[in-house]
Specification:
Chain lengths: ~260, ~525
């Protein structure tokens, strides 16, 4: 569960996030889309605790982490974050990369947890390899496993598919969604690519100029856009056939009809 | 078919020219002067090994502290002058160690200002010999630290902000982030820098002979010139060569572990303010002053006292130095260019396998290269006299000296060319080909303009190295032929600091130019 209330943030008097609020229930995959510079990555960093907002409050699984007079440091927030570049450590093996955040856990327990994570992301036999020996998709899974090592309550992902080969993106996107659903972890994904957002997320927030203009599922956004800006932004990308196929694939359980 | 043959011939010829003398050096073990070796083993060998070991440890610690410390400060903080200092911290590399050495002695020895002042304070103290192991380590650390600085700074700049944030999200403290994450990540860069330092320290001849500190290079010199045993000098050289190759192998290994991450987010440096800014800024400027300011000021002061007669004595060494530098730089760069142009689109496994042989010389001390060159030419001369009856003399001529520089500096020239050829990429050439350009036109209008900066850099770097080269020049020069570096050596050997200052100053000033051109710059997100 993730709950943001009226978050304000900026650098040097320049406002970047403006009264941002959102609410995600347990196990939901949310996506933030919007043009570059709209503040979506900054919002992710504020939730992780890498940036400190001026005002507003954040609750993670009911626990208050940001509020007037309250600021919990990143490591105590129970947040996992996957960076756009994956930020794997090139000098460490897959196993040591995943174990990195849990170095202080006793060795036996540490090994057990890493084994579980390796199995989860299906990299059991790759644990002695170094990041540069892995494919882009495998690197991404290592980054996810590492983010999950501390057993976070929520997962934040910055442009998870943008580093991958275009041909693989669809397949890996589906794999990613399956994995997140299996974990039933509340996840917030930032992306500039709407196809990716439609493919991965249950709910989508559209951001413009530092605030979320509309939050809702596919139906809300396409059928009831709150402004012309959103209508244009969303429509610009959903009219295409390819998009229709993806939507037909991933949203079939909702029995949605792809827009012609 | 035919062009392949010519290419292979050139490639193979270069490999023979450069690696041949070094292999010949190893073959000299079949005549062992047992008497001389008994003497060496009894009185010298262990002493030489221990001395070299102490030197390497000391210089390793000194350069690592200075190098990593300054790299971290200039990478992480912004303060008054940080932009200038980021580049300027490599400038001490322009000071030949033997020059820094005699400046140190001039200041710290018995008649220098420090001890003179101490005696005015209390007449009982202040007679100690500055020519000790600490002095050698101190002097070498101050001129060699830029290698560690440059390579560890390069490694710092490859850190990705997100990697640091992963550690922050895991709750690592600042010191834990540095020692558990950052230091392991820059370790390959640090080690690569350290091995360069060690190679230079082992190769040094001028400083250790000035300080009377026995190492392999001084031992080789003595065996050759005091015992007249070139064979034993060759054997000692091969021991030193072996150590150098171990270091070279180690350097390649560390370098191969330096990873090349393409896309990184800059970890924003901290803009210091207030007291912290003043402290860091003062410390950095003080260290810069100690490394470059004090030596330069001392040399300028001495030079201003140099008698006019000494200046007149410098005219000939100066022109000799320039001729030598120009001739060698052009020869070496031309050959290296030829090799690069053959290699850059090469797919021939045979040729690829012999390229590394041409790059061995840079790891080797000038003394070793000089001995190898001497042996090589005396063999060739004997052969020619025996078979053809011609009386040919190459050793002891300028050609012999330039040949030694070729062995020593070929890889320096080829390295700066490799980069510019790699940047060109074969595509450009292919594009020109499909547009119907003839080979000559392709060279003139595409390849040469794109690789010219690399060629000019090679000429510049090789000339600067040749200008300050001491041991090989000392051993192989034509009789009576002096260069600036040799003048410094001769005058400092007799403690004539004031006379030595002027040529030393010229050496440093020429060395500063290429360093400033290739200095590192502050990172920015732009």
């Amino acid at each position: 569960m993730l709950d943001l209330n009226a978050i304000n943030f900026g650098y040097n008097h320049e406002s970047i996030l403006n009264q941002v609020s959102l609410n995600m229930k347990q196990g939901i995959i949310g996506a933030l889309i919007g043009p570059s510079g709209c503040g979506k990555t900054t919002l992710l960093r504020v939730i992780a605790g890498l940036e400190k907002p001026y005002s507003g409050s954040i609750h993670i699984n009911g626990k208050q982490v940001v509020a007037p007079g309250v600021y919990i440091s990143p490591e105590k927030r129970s947040v996992g974050m996957v960076f756009q570049s994956y930020a794997l450590f090139p000098h460490l093996t897959v196993r040591k990369n995943i174990a990195f955040p849990i170095q202080d856990v006793p060795q036996k327990e540490q090994n057990k947890r890493v084994d579980e994570l390796l199995e989860l992301v299906q990299l059991q036999n790759q644990d002695k390899k170094y990041p540069h020996q892995l494919s882009g998709g495998q690197q991404q899974r290592v980054a996810i496993a590492r983010a999950l090592a501390q057993r976070p309550d929520i997962l934040l992902m910055d442009e998870p598919l943008s580093n991958l080969d275009a041909k693989l993106r669809d397949q890996l996107g589906q794999d990613l969604k399956r994995l997140l659903k299996k974990l039933n972890i509340t996840t917030l994904i930032v992306t500039h690519d709407q196809h990716e957002a439609w493919q991965l997320a249950d709910e989508i927030g559209v951001m413009f100029d530092g605030s979320i203009q509309q939050w809702g599922d596919f139906k809300d956004l396409t059928q009831h856009p709150v402004s012309d800006q959103i209508k244009h932004f969303v429509m610009a990308n959903t009219a295409c056939d390819i998009c229709g196929h993806i939507i037909a694939d991933t949203h079939s359980h909702k029995q949605l009809h792809p827009t012609p | 078919m035919q062009t392949t043959f010519i290419k292979r011939f050139i490639q193979f010829g270069l490999a023979i020219i450069i690696a041949g003398p070094l292999l010949l050096l190893l073959s000299y073990w079949w005549t062992v002067d047992s008497q001389l070796w008994q003497h060496i083993l009894k009185y010298q060998f262990l002493h030489l090994l221990v001395n070299s070991f102490i030197l390497l440890i000391g210089v390793g610690v000194g350069t690592s502290c200075l190098g990593i410390g300054l790299a971290w400060i200039t990478y992480r903080y912004r303060f008054t002058g940080s932009k200038f200092l980021t580049g300027a911290f490599i400038l001490p590399l322009a000071i030949p160690a033997y020059v820094q050495g005699f400046i140190y002695l001039g200041i710290a020895d018995v008649s220098g200002p420090i001890q003179t002042w101490l005696r005015t304070v209390s007449p009982d103290i202040g007679y100690f010999d500055a020519r000790n192991v600490f002095g050698v380590i101190w002097v070498m650390s101050w001129v060699l630290y830029p290698y560690v600085y440059l390579l560890s700074r390069h490694a710092f700049a490859k850190l990705d902000k997100s990697q640091i944030e992963v550690a922050k999200l895991a709750g690592f403290s600042h010191s834990k982030i540095f020692f558990r994450l950052i230091f392991p990540m820059i370790r390959p860069g640090w080690l690569a820098g350290l091995t360069l330092v060690w190679m230079e320290a082992l190769a040094d001849f001028g400083t250790v002979s000035l300080f009377g500190y026995d190492t392999f290079t001084t031992a080789i010199y003595k065996t050759w010139f005091d015992f007249y045993s070139l064979a034993t000098a060759a054997q000692l050289s091969s021991v030193l060569m072996l150590i150098a190759f171990v270091l070279l192998w180690w350097e390649k290994r560390s370098e191969s572990r330096i990873l090349h991450e393409s896309k990184i987010t800059l970890w924003e440096p901290i803009i210091l303010k207030g007291l912290a800014e003043k402290l860091v800024s003062a410390l950095s400027w003080l260290l810069f002053l100690a490394a470059l300011g004090v030596p330069l000021i001392q040399l300028i002061v001495w030079s201003s006292q140099t008698p006019g007669q000494t200046w007149n004595q410098l005219a000939e060494p100066l022109s000799n130095t320039l001729i030598l530098a120009g001739l060698s730089a052009l020869t070496i760069t031309t050959l290296a260019y030829l090799q690069s142009i053959i290699n850059y689109r090469n797919t021939d496994k045979f040729m690829e396998s012999i390229v590394p042989m041409t790059k061995l010389g840079y790891a080797l001390p000038g003394t070793v290269v000089a001995v190898a060159t001497m042996l090589w030419f005396s063999q060739i001369e004997n052969l020619i006299v025996d078979k053809l009856g011609w009386d040919l003399l190459i050793s002891g001529t300028l050609a012999g000296l330039i040949f030694a520089y070729l062995i020593r500096f070929f890889s320096l020239a080829s390295q700066s060319l490799v980069d510019s050829f790699a940047r060109m990429q074969s595509l450009v050439n292919d594009a020109a080909k499909t547009l119907g350009a003839s080979p000559w036109r392709r060279f003139r209008q595409v390849i040469w303009p794109l690789t010219r900066p690399g060629a000019l850099a090679a000429i510049l770097l090789v000339s600067v190295e040749v200008i300050k080269e001491l041991p090989a020049t000392l051993l192989l020069r034509p009789f009576g032929w002096d260069t600036l570096a040799l003048k410094v050596y001769q005058w400092t050997a007799e403690a004539m600091w004031i006379e030595a200052a002027a040529p030393a100053l010229i050496l440093i000033l020429t060395g500063l130019l290429p360093l400033w051109l290739f200095r590192p710059k502050e990172e920015s997100n732009a």
